[in-house]
Amino acid sequence: MDDALTLPDDVKAQLDRFEAAVESVETGLEPLLGADRRELEASLTPLERAKVHVALANAVSTLFSMYLKAVGLDPAEHAVRKELERVELYRAKLDKAAAGNRRSEKPSADKKRDAGGEGDGKRTGVSSEKKRKSSEKGGPKGSEKKGKKRR
User: Which are the contacts of 47, defined by CB distance < 8 A and separation ≥ 6?
Assistant: First the structure.
């Protein structure tokens, strides 16, 4: 009876890799699955929340793809392939949004540094009143930019 359960070495190696992959996914998902969903989502920014949702969708789709392969079906010919492609599109959108978010944060930090005093953390640059008066007089920065946008 043991002879009927003996597997070829290459199949054993594939099975070991499969088990290791499943354990890796389970280990990676433990923090998310063990946490209270509402508390977790409340502590995340909208971008982080979206990244978690995309990662979970990818994990579920990948696990289902692995299941299909384990039962002898080709995941490339199953609808799960389209789902994985859709998840990848969302991942690309999130990466683009995160890159845009990083770019928008950096200039604002530079502006604060340029407008603020050094060392004391207080702003000592031109006051908003002086900026307004300068733009009313036709100062170079304010009126030129506004004029170009209106045309």
Answer: 94, 97, 98, 101
- Give bridge partners of residue 123 from the DSSP assignment: 116
Backbone angles phi, psi at 93, to 5 degrees: -65, -40
Cα dihedral angle (106, 108, 114, 117), rounded to 10 degrees? Answer: -110
Nearest Cα to 98, choosing from 40, 43, 51? 51
Give the amino acid at 17: R
Residue 56 CB contacts under 8 Å (≥ 6 apart), including other chains: 29, 32
pLDDT 10s per residue in the chain (151 long)?
Answer: 455 678 889 888 988 998 998 888 888 888 877 888 888 888 999 999 999 899 889 989 988 998 898 899 999 999 999 999 999 999 999 999 988 888 777 655 555 555 554 444 444 444 444 444 445 555 444 444 444 444 4
